[in-house]
Specification:
Helix 2 (about 40-50) crosses helix 9 (about 260-275) and helix 9 (about 260-275) runs antiparallel to helix 10. This protein is an alpha/beta fold. It has helices at about 1-5, 40-50, 65-80, 125, 150-160, 180-195, 200-210, 215-225, 260-275, 280-295, 305-319; strands at about 10-15, 15-25, 35-40, 55-65, 85-90, 95-100, 110, 135-140, 165-170, 195-200, 230, 240, 245-250. The strands form two sheets. A nine-stranded mixed sheet has the order 5-4-1-8-9-10-11-12-13, with helices on both faces. The protein has a four-stranded mixed sheet with strand order 3-2-6-7.
Amino acid sequence: MLEKLKMNNFLVVGRAGLDLYADPPGTEIENATGFSAALGGSAANIAVAITRQGGKASLFTAVSDDAVGRYTRKALAAYGVDTNYVRRVGGEARNSLAVVETRSTNCQSVIYRNDAADFHVTEADSSSIDYTPFGAAVVTGTSLAQEPSRKATFKAMQLARAAGLVLIIDIDYRPYSWASREQAQQICSQAAEMCDFIVANDEEFAVLAGAQGGLNYAEELAQSKDCIVVYKMGERGCTTFANGNRFDTSVFKVQALKPTGAGDGFMGGFLAGLAAGASLPDAARRGAATAAIVVTRLGCAPAMPDASQVQSFMQDRER
């Protein structure tokens, strides 16, 4: 399975949108004197993190057929993300929009997802993808929250599996996108059952478990379906379960500007490490380093470091 990742070519499924950051940094949204624009959205951020560290990534999503959608596609292409599977949708659908603060504590993030364009991908879109060049498909759970995106995502996962791709899911639970927590549990559990890698934080594993606290469930999941499970704990690092073993990865201590983008950076760095042939512990450490750099910089996609920056950061910290 890990050998397949060395193809270093990833299909990423999920949202891409516009982020507006309150200016100047440190300002609350309600007191902002202006806003700076950047590419955002969890799937887009992961794809950018991969390309910044030398990998190839194609995004499977939909954007609005308007100026904001054109901005999003142009920004993805500028980061080297392939947009062949980014479809434009008309009508009233609009791109996902996040209005965010650059603050290390009490950081507000207001996300607009009403009839989001990325929910309009279809099974026909999934069937139009050529899966053969990819080593893995990375699914973000938000794409499962509504139809027709849900059916399209499951279709893409089925076709990716049939083509021999490794399946990876970031549960990426956003309560406002789902009809209920119970629905999220049912759908995300079904998707996780199909995957070789499951990455989530405590709340997200609790959603899968249908109970409070997900660490025990994460370990049980890794054992019961013989997959690799990464249990993220924010500033306490992460625990990885694989092949009957577990190991802990600590965070790198930094002076954070904001918390946003850390999870996406971790995923991108982790996958870039595995694609480069790193062991699971070394790849997790690379993911942690990527996340640490991201929280010290403005934005999410713009904050993703390249491979040399990650390597220098890790070497400096080890010294």
